[in-house]
Amino acid sequence: MRNAADDRSEMISQLLFGELVEIYKKKKKSWYKVTSAHDDYLGWIDVKHVQLINKEEFENLKACNTISLDWVNPIIAGGKSIPIVAGSNLHNFDGLTLKSPLGRYQFSGQIIDSEQIDITDELISKLAKHYLNAPYLWGGRSPFGIDCSGYTQVIYKMLGYDIPRDSVEQVELGETVDFNIDARVGDLAFFVNKENRIIHVGILLEDNKIIHASGWVRIDTLDHFGIYNEDTRKYSHVLRIIKRVLPDRLQESN
Predict the structure, then answer these.
(1) Is 212 a catalytic residue?
(2) Which listed residue (91, 130, 148, 237) is catalytic?
C-alpha cells in the first residue's frame, strides 16, 4: 500500500493475503485508492493485486477468524501454488481447504483460529516470539519485513483483535496501567521522541522484557525509563505509557 499512485511512492503499509479493502477511486487505470477493512487505513494499491467481489461477498468474508502462522507456506490448486505469509486470512477454512474469491485451495500449514483459543500469557509470548529476528521494514506487516506498529497489529490480529495501523492511534486504545504494579504480558508499551510524540510501540513479555521491531524483532529489557539495549548498553526508547487492550484473563494454572 503506497502513499501515492506510483510504484516509486513510499510504502506506508502492506495488505496480507485475504485481507479486504473498499475501493474509493481508480487512477491511471492501474491504481486503486482503498481503505483496508480491518483498520480503515487509506492508501493506493496496484489493481493487479486485487480480486473484485460484490458487497454480499465482502460482508461474508469479513468474518474470517482463521489466520496462517507459518512464515511462508503455499496455498495450492490445480498445480498452481501461491505463497502466503503469516498473518494471512484463510477464508472458509475447513482444516484442509479454504475458499476465497480466487477459488478453492488446499493449505497444509499451521493456523490459529481466534474463536477457538484461550488467550494466555503463554500463547501471547509464543505468537510474539514467532517473529523474532524478522527484519525491520517501514510500512511492513510480514515476517520478511515489519515495522513496530505493523508487528503489534498482526500479533493482535492473531489473537482476534483488530487494532489501528499506527502507534499514534494504537495508544488511544485500552486502559492505562502502572508498569511497576499492574503491567502484564500482552500489554502495549508506547515510547516518545524529544517532542513527546508517540513514535514506537512494543509488546510486554514476562520478567520486565519487551519484544518490539527495532532494526529487527528483538527482545530487550524494559524499565520505567524505557527500553535498555544490552548490545549498545544504552536506552534506545523513552517510555511514555503502557496500555491494556486485551481483556483481563484468568492466571494460567500450573
Answers:
(1) yes
(2) 148
